[in-house]
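request received
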Amino acid sequence: MASVSTIRIAWRNLGRNPKRTAFALTAIGIGQFAFLFTAALLNGYADQFLDAVTGPLVGHIQIHAPEWREERSVELTVRDLEGVLEAVRSVDGVANAAPRVYAPALVARGSEGFMGVLVGVSESAETYRAGLFPGGAPTPLGDHRSVVGRSYATRYGVSTGDTLALVGQDVDGAIASGLFSIDEIVASKVDVVNNQGVVVSLDDAQEFLYLGDEAHEIVVHVANSGMLESVLSRLRDLPELEGYEVMPWWEISPIMASFVELMDHYLGIFLFIVIIAAAAGIANTMLMSTFERRHQFGMLLALGATPGRLVRMIMVEAVVLGQLGVALGTAVGLAFVGLTARSGIDYASLAGSAEQYEIAFQGMQLSSIVFPSITVGDVLTGALAVFGVSLLAVIWPSLHIAHLEPMEVLRS
Amino acid sequence: MERRRVGWLTLMALCAPAMLAPATVFCEDPAASPAGPPPDASELLESFDDLYRSTGTIAEFEITIEKPNKTRTMEAKSWSQGEEKALIVIESPQRDAGTATLKVGNNLWNYLPKISRTIRVPPAMMMSSWMGSDLTNDDLVKESSYEDDYDAEDAVWSDDPPGWLVALRPKPDVPGLWGRLEVVFEPERLLPVVARYYDRKDRLARTMILDEVESVGGRVIPTRMTVIDEQEEGERTVLLYNDVEWNVDLDDSRFSLASLERRR
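response:
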């Protein structure tokens, strides 16, 4: 294809007009850098979203009684919880299954009531690394002890040591009431906990609501996301789960799923920009240098060179130009990612705020810090795109060469 | 508590009151009804407001809450003084006995005997269900007045059921009410028989039927009030007045938090 001598000739030809070559390299380099920069940020977002979604709030798969997600009625439960959990946990690939009970409640420390949500959880299940209390519950639950979300506590001025009265409606529709002590305040990635939640033990919640061995939701995590589909179908086949909804995270949170997909499309736009920059740089350079060297080409043709050889030569020039630009852009891009990958980029401080903030979106807490990352695939995508552009950019100059009449050119 | 309750956020009226005036021009000629000229709408509403009120009312009633898979009945006693004060105490079943609701002016408290606590119901929850029924907190303590808080069109004859229909829209500055209402009064004694409540999206949210008219304690009232949830299948609440005493001299101290907490 391209021999060493061709590459050397191409290299020398590029050096003939250093300013023009530098201009083209800069354009292509900036394009590739912009692409990698964007890819790095988008990867950071996507990772954050995926982590948040498949983390404690939604998990990988969820199990509910039909209609519970829309109605949120206390009586729409998964029954025979112990049997169901045992069956679920025995499925190959299931790393964790966490049952949860949810009920809206009127909450009061003194006599002033405010809205909240009673969340009953199984401590042992939630200490899983992707659970509500990874690594350990902040305080043992049960015996009417509770853990309250930090935003919630701040908003209503409650703190550790306070006793909360909770009033709700139990499974029969009668008034449910109970007293719970606040044993710990936690900042959770799960919005319902952070902003509205009074988290208690599963037993306490079941007692409060006059429930038996039941729960509203089971959050299932798989050992690795590659196994999701197979675990999903195995769960759906379990006789214990007949009649219940078994749904993967992208059906529970379709907005998040399309968000992540949107990122890819967004990145595609940037790729397009890279292509334009590359096309401009390469086409311009190649066109001009081809026209300038008409005499040279004419002479080579007269001396016996084939048009094909000449076309191959400018093609190599274009490719070398393109890939050199890509290399430059990649170097700067990698430097950028290298500098920021560990500490992340904090949007809050960029915007001038002193504190890191968190946004609640779709039930998850998203931090203002993003950790950019690049994959080899991203770099190669840019390189390949530019490679393609290089080849396209020499079409016109190639056609020009192919139709050169050596005698005409030498005479003029 | 998070069932689809509607109309409880502050909202601007769907129609500015000014628009109601020209609209009446387009009303059908009400004289075309069999019962003669229409009664005055505001008088009808005032009597609706006062239907169960007096300077001191003591009532014993039964509430039956029907849901698709279960039905509960509670017995309760209530004391009320005009528009401003009311106390309702649940007497049975045992599980709910002692639970009480106190209204004083615009404030509402619930007393929970199991935890011996009194909690004020935040205004935001005024339109949520009372004790799991299809009645709202607001209904029970009658915080809103049909006459004062709504703009009414003139009464027109309605055939289903036969009676005078008054269409109501909430006034702009009144919070937490429905999108619109239709109340039908029967022509004999001008008692309300049906009230239809539409949410802010103009969907029929609930229907209230008042029937079994009897003389109780000297006043003729519908003794049965049925509230049907139009958006959920098989859900309704029936309020049955068993005994009512009117214009009783009630002690102010009864309507206090201290009195609430002292109840056993």
